[in-house]
DNA sequence: GAAAAACAGTGACAATTGTTACATTACTTT
DNA sequence: AAAGTAATGTAACAATTGTCACTGTTTTTC
C-alpha cells in the first residue's frame, strides 16, 4: 500500500506515508454512490486514490449546483474543515467514476497537522485551491449570463477529463447549472452555429 | 496593547497574545480606503481590532459582488490562505468604517500554526466560517431570483450592523448584487407593499 | 439661496431565461 | 423489425431582469 500512496501524493513525507498506511482505511465506492450528504456529520477526511467525485450544493427543492470535481491526489476540503470541529457537511458528494478512497479518522487529521509538515502544507494547499475554485464559480454566476456560464462549465469539464468529447446529456448540464434542459439545448445550438461545439447524442465535442 | 488583544480575541492563549504584541504592527485605515486589491501580493495576515471591512469580488468591467464583512475579532481568511504560499489576492477589501488592524507578517502566520494551539484553532475556524459563508452566497445566487437575494442581502446587513435601519442607497445595493438601480428600486417597492420594509432616503427599515 | 449633485420613482420596451407542449431522432429491448 | 425509451429540437408564450428616458425630491456645494 505504501507505494501507491507515495505515487499519488508525492508531496507526502516518508513518515507521513507510513502513518497514513498504518492508520487510514481504504474504501471503495461505485459510480452513483453518494458518499456525503448535506447535514450529515463528517467522521473522516477523504483522500482520493482513483476515480472521480462530483461535489455539489443542493437546495431544499432538490435543485443541484455543481461546484467541482475531486480527482486522484486530491482531498475534500470540506471534510478537512469540518473534521476539526465535528461539524455537519454543507455539501453533497457523489461518485461519478468508481473510486478508491483513503479515510483518515477525524482525530488524526488534527494530530498530523502538528507532526507532519508535509501534511500541514497539503491541507493548507487544499483549502487554498478549493477556495479559489469556489471564487471562480461565484464569478461565473454573479457576473455572467447563462451562455457564458455554459462555456465556462464545458471548458472545466474538458480540463478535468482531459479530452474534448464530453459525454453529457443536455439534462445533466441543465441540472448542474440549475436551469432547464430547453435553455441548454437552445444555447448549445447557438454555440454550434458559431462553430464552438459540435453536437451529437450524449456527446458534445469542443472545437475551440 | 496586550489587554485589548485579549479582549477582542478571547480564544488566544497568553503566550500567543504576547507574541502578537511583540511581532505584529498596528495599522489604521480610513473609510473608503482599499486595503487589498485583486492581483496584489499579500504580505500580511490581517486581524481586525475595530471598524468594518467589506470583502468583495471584482470583475474586469469594474462590476462588484459583495461577499462578506470583516468585523472586530475576525480575520481575513484569504490573507491567511495566500500568506503561506505568497500568492496573489483574489479579492478586494475596502474599509467601510475606520479600522484598526493587526498586521501579522507572513512567516509568523505559518510559524505560529505549529507553536500555538489557539492560533491553529483560530485559523482553522476562520477558514471554516468563511467557507460556509461563501457557500451560502453561492446558494443565494444559484438557486434564488433577485427578490429573494435582495431579502437575503438586507438580512445579512441587519445582522452585521445589529440594527433594523439600513443606511444604504439603492445604487449601493445594486452594485453589490451586480444588478441595476432600477431593479432594486422596483423590488424594494414591492417589498414595501408587502409590508416587509419601510423606505426612506438612504434608509431602509426592516419591519420583519 | 441658486445651482449642482445625489437619490428615488416610474413607464416603456428589450433581452434573457423559464415553462409548456409536442415533434423528431437515435438508441435499446424484446 | 417493432415497440419502447431516452435524448434532442423547437415554437410559442410567460416571467424576470436589464436598459433607457425622463420626473421629482432632497441634500450639498458654492
TrEMBL record, chains A, B:
Residues 144-208 form the HTH crp-type domain. Pfam families: cNMP_binding, HTH_Crp_2. This is Crp/Fnr family transcriptional regulator. GO terms for biological process: regulation of DNA-templated transcription. It comes from Flavobacterium psychrolimnae. Keywords: DNA-binding, Transcription, Transcription regulation. InterPro entries: cNMP-bd_dom (IPR000595), cNMP-bd_dom_sf (IPR018490), HTH_CRP (IPR012318), RmlC-like_jellyroll (IPR014710), WH-like_DNA-bd_sf (IPR036388), WH_DNA-bd_sf (IPR036390). GO terms for molecular function: DNA binding. Residues 8-74 form the Cyclic nucleotide-binding domain.
